[in-house]
Amino acid sequence: MSEEAPTQQQQPPEQEKKADEPPPAAPDAPQESCSSPAAEEKTFPCRALVLTGYGGYDKVKLQVKALSQPQLQAGEVLVRVKACGLNFAELLCRQGLYELLPAPPVTMGMECSGIIEAVGEEVTDRKVGDRVITLGKSGMWQELVVVSADRTFPMPEQMSFEEGAALPVNYLTAYMMLFEMASVRPGKSVLIHMAAGGVGIAVTQLCQTVQDVTVFGTASASKHETIAQGGVTHPIDYRTKDYVEEIRKISPKGVDIVLDPLGGSDTQKGFSLLKPLGTLIVFGAANCVTGQKKNLLAMAKTWYNQLSLTTLKLMQSNKAVCGFHLGYISDEQLISRTMFTLLELYSQGKIKPRIDSCYHFEEVADAMRRMHERQNIGKVILLPEPKKVEEKPKSNPEPEENVEKTEAAVDEKKEEAKEEVKAEKD
Ligand SMILES: NC(=O)c1ccc[n+]([C@@H]2O[C@H](COP(=O)([O-])OP(=O)(O)OC[C@H]3O[C@@H](n4cnc5c(N)ncnc54)[C@H](OP(=O)(O)O)[C@@H]3O)[C@@H](O)[C@H]2O)c1
C-alpha cells in the first residue's frame, strides 16, 4: 500500500530505553569529531517516538533513549533534529499497513530538518552548524539522527525548520508525479484528491509553475476558500457532491491528469474522467483508513473496487495508468536532483509549504488525530523540543465544519475511557 522515502536510516547507538518518562535536559552533543576514547564512554538522552506495536494512538510512545556517543562512519553527519513531518503513511504504519517500515519496536518518521552537530571523515561539503533537511524510510522522529551527508540538503536562509520538515515527502511526490510521470504542460488540467493536505497543496503550487494549468481539487467544504486562494481553480466538496458530475459540468471532456491517493472506486472514477491520452497516477489507498484502528471492511471494499483492466482495454481506451511510490525510488541521484530543484523553487518564491499545525513529541496522538479527523490544511509538524507546561498546540483555526466532529470525537473518547474503566473493573 502507500508511500514514502528510500534508504534505511541509521540510528545512533542506543543503550537502554525508558518508556514515557519526562525527558531530562539533553546535554550538549559532540561538536566536531565523535571518536575520542573519553567521548566514547559518555551517554546522553535522546527523545524518540517509537512505534511499539500496531493499533491506535497509544502504540506510538515517547521514549528517552540513552545513546552512546555516535561513531560516525566516513561520509556521515550527526543532525540535531528541530522539526519532523507527519505523513499519512505514518497513520498506515501505526495500523500495520505500511510494508516498508521495519517491525516494531521502531522509531518512526520519514523526514526532518535540523542542525549538523558533527561530521564524519570525508565529509567535505557539510559542516557543523549547517541547517539541513533529510529523509529516510524511518527513524526521523528522534532528537538526533545519523545520516549520510549525501542525504542532507542545505536549507535556504529564509526557510523555517517547520517548512524544511514539510518539504521532502510531499513535494518530491508531487514533483515526480507531475513532471516525471505525467509530464504536465501548459493548458492541461489536473484532478487532485485530498487537495488541502500536504501532497495536495504541493501539487497545486507546482501546477502554478506551469502556464494555464487548471486544477480540480476535492476537499472538505470548510477548506475551499484556503485552497482556492492557494491556486485550486475548482474546489469540489466530495462529501456532499458527486465530484465526477461536478467536473463534467465544468469540463465535459474530463481532465488530462488524475492524481489518485484514495484507491478503490475512486480509481475507477478517475480513469473514467480521463480525456483521451490522459494519465492516471495511483499513489495511495487512503480509502482503507477510516479512523484510529485498522478497518478490515474498508480495506476489503477498497481492494474489491479497485480498477481492473486488460491491456487490450487499456489500448482501446488510449489512456495511461501509472503507479507512484516514493519509498520504492532507489535512484539517489534522482532524489537529490529533485530536492535541489525544489529548494531552488522555494528560494524563487514559487513554492512554500503550508504549515497546518505543530505538536510537540508528547502530543503525537493529537497530531495523528488531527489528520485522521480530516482537520488539517497543509502539513502537520512534530517538534522534538519538550513542551513547556503552559504552551498550547500552535495551529491554524479549526475548519468550522469539523468542530462538531471534534466534539463527537471527544464524546467518543469519553465513551472509550468509560469502557476501559468498566473492562478493568470486570
Ligand atoms: N505514493 C507515495 O509516494 C506517496 C507519498 C506521499 C503521500 N502519499 C499519499 O498521498 C495522500 C496524502 O498524503 P498526505 O501525507 O499529504 O496527507 P494529507 O493529505 O495531509 O491527509 C489528510 C487529509 O486528507 C483528506 N482525507 C481523505 N481521505 C482521508 C482518510 N481516509 N482519512 C483521513 N483523511 C483523509 C482529509 O482532508 P479532506 O477532508 O479535505 O479531504 C485530511 O485532512 C495519502 O493517501 C498518502 O498515502 C503517497
From TrEMBL:
Q: What's an example Gene Ontology biological process for this entry?
A: negative regulation of mitochondrial fusion
Q: Where is the composition biased (Low complexity)?
A: 1-13
For this UniProt record, the keywords arranged alphabetically read as follows: Oxidoreductase
Q: Name one GO molecular function term.
A: oxidoreductase activity
GO CC terms: mitochondrial outer membrane
Task: Spell out the SUPFAM superfamilies in the cross-references.
Answer: GroES-like, NAD(P)-binding Rossmann-fold domains
Domain Enoyl reductase (ER) spans what residues? 55-382
Tell me the segments the record calls region Disordered: 1-39, 383-426
- Composition bias of kind Basic and acidic residues appears in 385-426
Question: Mind telling me which Pfam families this protein's record contains?
Answer: ADH_N, ADH_zinc_N_2
Going by the entry's taxonomy, the superkingdom of the source organism is recorded as Eukaryota
Q: Please give the name of this protein.
A: Synaptic vesicle membrane protein VAT-1 homolog
Species for this entry: Scomber scombrus
